Structure formats: C-alpha cells, structure tokens
Amino acid sequence: MHMADALLAPAVAATMYVASGAAAGVSIHQLKKEDDPQKLPTMAVTAALVFAGQMINYTIPGTGSSGHMCGGMLLSALLGPQAGFLSMIVVLTIQCLFFADGGLMALGANIWNMAFYGCFVGYYLIWRPILRGNSALSQRARIVLASVLGCVVTLQLGAFSVVLETSLSGITELPFGAFMALMQPIHLAIGLIEGAVTAAVLVFVYAARPALLRDVDAQGGRYSLKATIAILAIVAAIVGGGLSHLASSDPDGLEWALFGNAEAGYSENMGLDEEDFGLSSSAADTAGAIQERTSFLPDYAFADSDSAAGTTVSGLVGSAMVAGAAAIICLAGGFFRRKKVAA
Amino acid sequence: MNRMEKALFELHEMDDLAARHSAVHDLCPLAKLLTTIAYILIVVSFSKYDLSGLFPLILYPAIVFQFSGIPPAVCFRKTRFVLPLVLAVGLFNPLLDRTAVLRLGGVSVSGGVVSMLTLMLKGILALTASFLLMATTGIDRLCAALRQLRVPGVLVTLLLLTYRYVGVMTEEVGVMTDAYHLRAPGQKGIHHSAWGSFLGQLLLRSMDRAGELYSSMLLRGFRDEFPYVETRKCAGKDVLWLGFWTGSFLLARFVNIAQLLGSLAVR
Amino acid sequence: MIEFDHVFFAYEKGREVLRDLSFTIEKGEAVGLIGANGAGKSTVMKVLLGLLPCTGRVLVDGIPVRKEHLAKIRRKLGFVLQDSDDQMFMPTVYEDMIFAPLNYGLSREEADARVDGVLRRLGLQSLKHRHNHRLSGGEERMAAIATILAMEPEAVLMDEPTAALDPYNRRLVMGIIRELTQTRLITSHDLDMILDTCDRVILLSGGEIAADGPAGTILRDKGLLKAHRMELPLRYA
Lengths: 343, 267, 237
Fold this sequence. Notes:
- The complex is a heterotrimer of chains A (343), B (267) and C (237).
- Chain A is built from eleven helices and two strands; from the N terminus they run H-H-E-E-H-H-H-H-H-H-H-H-H.
- With 343 residues, chain A is mostly helical.
- Chain A folds into two domains: 5-249, Arp2/3 complex 21 kDa subunit ARPC3; 257-294, no CATH class.
- Chain A has a two-stranded antiparallel ribbon with strand order 1-2.
- Chain B folds into two domains: 1-151 and 232-262, no CATH class; 152-225, no CATH class.
- Chain B has a two-stranded antiparallel sheet with strand order 1-2.
- The longest helix of chain B has 31 residues, at 153-183.
- Chains in contact: A-B, B-C.
- At the A-B interface, helix 1, helix 2, strand 1, helix 4 and helix 7 of A face helix 1, helix 2, helix 3, helix 4 and helix 5 of B.
C-alpha cells in the first residue's frame, strides 16, 4: 500500500503531511509526559524488528500463497498507540529512503494510511475495548479477535484513503467507485491474513510474557465488549452498504457530483485547479480544439499549441533534444571519469 | 539469497554509495534535502498531459549522477517498487481516456496514453531524486539536516537508533528463516503452526536486547536526546546549488522548454 | 577503587544470585572474575554499575553506588559488553566514540581530539568512519573498546572480551588489555587470556567467592577449579 510520489498532487501530499505531522506532534507530547527514557531503545529495536518481520513469508493454509504481518497493530499492542505510531513513522521513513518503497513526498500520506489507522484507530477503537471489555471471552480469544478485526479495519481504512488521495489528485481515469471496488476486497483478504499472523504472534507473547502486552488481564471498567462489537458491526454495514452503492449504482452520477465531467475521462481536482498550474478545467474543450486543428492540417499537429494539453510535435522534438542532451552529459561524464582513472 | 539478505545488501549498498566522495557528497545535507523536495514537488505538479513540459526535468538527475559518480543502474533496480503500482493505476488511463490529443503522421495518440506516460515519468523522476539524495548523504547527515529543519529530536533519535538495528534484526530474521527452511525443505513460507513462535521468540529476545541497549546508553551518559554530529553549516556554494536548481525547476514548470527547443527545429 | 562489602542480590525471593560478597580492588589492579555459567559474574558487573539494586555496600572510589551518585560513578567506569551490537548503537564508530564525551559536556573539538588520540593509540584509525553494522565481530569488539576508552574511565570492566573472536583478533584484544593502565575487572571463560592479562583472580561459585588470589596460583589448582565446574587453562591441561 505504499504510495509513490507520482500518485499524489502536491496539495494532497502537503495536507497528509500536515495531518500526520499533527498526529506525530501529539504522540511526542504524550511520550514526553510519560517520561520513560527506556521506551526509546525499546521502540527502536521493536521498530527494527517489525521492519525485518514484514519480510517474512507466512504460508496461508489451503492456498499456495503467502501473507505478512501487520506492523501497526503489533506495535500499538506492545508499545501503546503513540509510541507505536512514532515507531511506524520511522519504519516507513527507512523503507522510503533506503528501499524506494513509497515516495518522499508521499511519506505523509503513507504514514497516515498505514500508521495512523493501525495505531490509533486500531488501538483505541478495537484493541483496548476488546481487551478491557466485560465478557466471558478468554484473553487469548480477545487477542485474536482484536488482532484480526484491527488489521481488517486498518487495512480497509488505509486502502480507502489511498483511493481517495489518488482520486483527489486527479491521477487516474479510473472512476472512484471502480477503484474502490478493486482495492477494498483485496485488502479485506490481506487484512484477514495479516490479522491472523499478528494474532498468532501476540498470543505467543501473551503466553510467554504477558506483561509485554497492553491491556491484557485488565478486564472491568466501562467497556462492554458486546457493545463494541455491535457498534463495529453497524459501522461496517453502513460503510459496506455505502461502498457497494458507490461501486455499482450510478458511479457516473456520483463522479459528476464529486469530481466533474466523467465522460471527458478526466477527474477534476476538487477546488484545487488554481494550484495545478496550467491544468485546464475541461479536457473536452482542448481535445475538441485539437481535433479541429488536426483535421485542418492533416499530417502533423498544430505547430504551436495553446499549451493546455502540453504535448505537441514541437514538444516531442524538443523532448528528444533534451533526451539527447542528457545522453551527451552522461557520455561526457563517463568519458571524463575514465580519463581521470587512466591519469 | 533470501529476501532479508537482499534487503541487507541494498542497505549496505546505500551506505557505500553515501560514503563516497564527490562535489555532490560534500554539499551541505540541508541544501540537498531542500533541492530534492523542490524537485519532487515541481515534477508532481505538472499536469497529466504535459509530457514534454516534464521532459527537461530529466536533466537534473542526469547531471547529479555525473557529478556524484553514482551508477544509475543501482537506482533503476529500485524502480521495481514504484513502477508496478504506478503502472497499475495508470494502466487504466489509455482504456478510459481515448480522446486523441495528438496526431503523428497518421497515428493519433490518446490522452490516456500521454497521461500514462507522464505518470510513469513522474514516478521515475521522483524516485530518482530521492535515491540521489540518500546516495550522496548518509543517514547521520540527513538526521542532522532534519534537526536543522526543527524536526523533533525524539523522532530523529528514533530514526537513527532504528536504522542502526534494522541491519541486526534483518540479519537475525534472515538467519532464522534459513534455519527454518533447512528443516522444512518443502515449504515456501512459515507454516501456520510456527506463525506465533517464529517471530514471537525473536520479539522476546529483542525486548531483552532493548534492555541491554538502554543500559549501554545510560552508562555513556544518555539522558533524553542524542548529541548531533553534523556541524557543517550551509555555505555559499550550497545556497548556490539550491538556488540554481530551484530556479531552473520553476523555469521549466512555467516555460515549456522542450517545446521552445522543438519549435526552433519544426516550422 | 572498587569495594564490595557484604553484598547480597536476588532476582526473586529464595533465588539468591549473590551471597555475602566482599572484596576490594585497588587502583591499577587487573582482576579476572571467573566462574561457571550462572555463578553470578555478570550480576557482579551490573550491581557495580548500578544497573541492579542490592543489599550491602558497593563503593567506587569511596562513593556508594546509589541513585544519587550514579552519574558520577558511571563516568569513572567504562563497561565493554559481551555483545558489541548492544554497545555500538550509533550508525558509525566515530559517532559512538564521541557520544559519551559530548554527553559529558566536552566541546566538539575536545571530543574529536580524544577520539583521534584513542584510535591512534590502538592503531584503529581505519575504523573511524565505518558503519557499525558492517563491522566484523573482531572489528566491532575493538571499536567497542575504543569507544569505552574515549570516555577516559578510571576503571575498565569487560564482559567476555574475547568471546567469539578468531585467534588473530583475540591476540589483538589481549594486547590492548595488557597495555591499559586503568583498573581492570574482566569476566571470562577464556582462562588463558585471564592468565595473560590479570594478576589476580576471583573465583565465583554459586554467588559466593570460592577463591581470591594470584592468577598464577588459582589457575594451577586443578582440584579447586574442578570443584567449581571449571577446568585448568589449556596451557596447563
């Protein structure tokens, strides 16, 4: 689910950075209040382990394929939501900087999509209520339930955010509904697997050293497990129903309402036109103008364009010249380096 | 070579590249970070049909590769992460957006194809810029630059410490994975009976290690933050680098340079 | 320099790890702490460093090891851990070496000078800018020793300094230990190394001191060693 830079418009990327930055700020503040200096090395080592652990292939029984572990839920169950969130930020940053897994500009969005939901939503709305809720369920059952549910919900929210951010950025021609119909079910399956793996690890830790996990053996208090499950079920029904409506009935209508003229095959950025310099508000107009011109001048396109679409024959020729210049620079660089070595 | 070993190899590769010496390596990390951010922002801000406008921006990575001596092949290996996702998203474009925006001879090129190509080029350019930043600046110098940008010390210290242990943990996981597969030759991944214990054991050992690490830090005077090493302040040439490139990117953004060049040739 | 006076320690009630330990180490002495696995050697180190609480008195340079004196005491004691990965926690050797000096308030220039001095003395200049996670076991151990020496401690404590080292690196580490002038307390199973680097040996067994005397005497006493699950050094075997 790591997004590349190319999938986001600058304004969307900036917004996500602000959101993630705010969450990070709150987490740091909370951590300072806790004043537990040992937390820092624990966070670092656990984050490093999660980084490595996410590469492990777990064979899914019955199928030939493999799944992985959900870092966000694991970290928040071990370290708490704030420390878990900061740890995930660092994992995602290292993946971005050293492995090109996720873009530098998209890091804010990736942090939100993968760390925020996993650590905050996953912990406060799922892990804690389930672990602390009044119910006859055993600790192990609670851990499994919370892990699976947490991962599923986290990934659904994350996938939804990816679709939203990409669509808002006007990157893809894919209608919103169709995009969601592709992303959500896949991530539901992934969430179930990741949840199962995460549950297995946490159950093991519980059996070996329960003190490492948050909120275990801490029943009582104001959480009612039944109520939590009921609320989650209702939310799922509403969201699921809404999503399927989006995906099937009248996507064009919804798209028109949200994003502009779908038939032109072009998604207009919601109120972000001013910031996307040179982006025309109606591709249809431009396309029409081009077609007129091309029919008037049969064998090559207009010599100068009104620049809205940007790519013209002279543009292509110029691009070829630029490419040539780049190639010459590379060759020259190589030549001078060889000379230096020989000297 | 298992996946973890490959990851370690890539990590070491980046370390080695950053340890080299060149005009670019010697630049102040803050200047390089800001230039990279400006580049990516501007690349991504191009409209989806503006392929030729985007083209001149390939000159930045081309020039930096040459000045820094970093082999481009290493970078292109990393595009395997970017391209699939970008392709997956962009692949629908030619199917959904068939309005012709260009005619070449008798062939019409649809907007969808142009936007897909633009998307791919943006993806590659953005990745290349990030790669060049890290390949010419080590994690320690990057962290110092982040501190200069007032990123909170806790986060930067965490980044530094985690980076240090990523290698150790990846190696441990790699060794355990190999050991597992030597005893389970038929299996491709970890069997569900071992799902919990495989990572669980490692997790427990890591908690112990964290305890040792903490003792180690305490014994060397650690209180709450690490002292930061980079003292090289940004000098004239760093400002010049940042200014020149940012100016060039902005120029390319507002003036379609490729088109200008081309229009000299095409009448 | 170091004094243990009727020290007791237990992780949990009934499981005593250290029992009525009393010994003194003078300034400049090189003492080897030996014993079977589980005898309590590492615990002695941790109690001395204030990482574990205890009953009884532990004094470093006359200062009791108590919470309020820990910062002062830890400046005097340099501890080389058994697992260098736990010790070298910065990305590069250089950064690890200046970590403590900077924390102690030295200026950047002073810290740099110290680091360069230590590396020169040990002949380890090539390690300065290397990444810790790329070092071999031997290199990492030397880097750890250099890091501790950059603290300019008054006493150097070492936990299994030659563990997992090849013969060449083992010789190098032994050479470094021999040239130290600080008070030294070294735990190890490598009895030949202890013989070569320490004048005095304390044999720990079941949390108690079974013997305390010249290295040459204790390490020749086959009966004594065997009674405490130890064996003669290889050269006497």
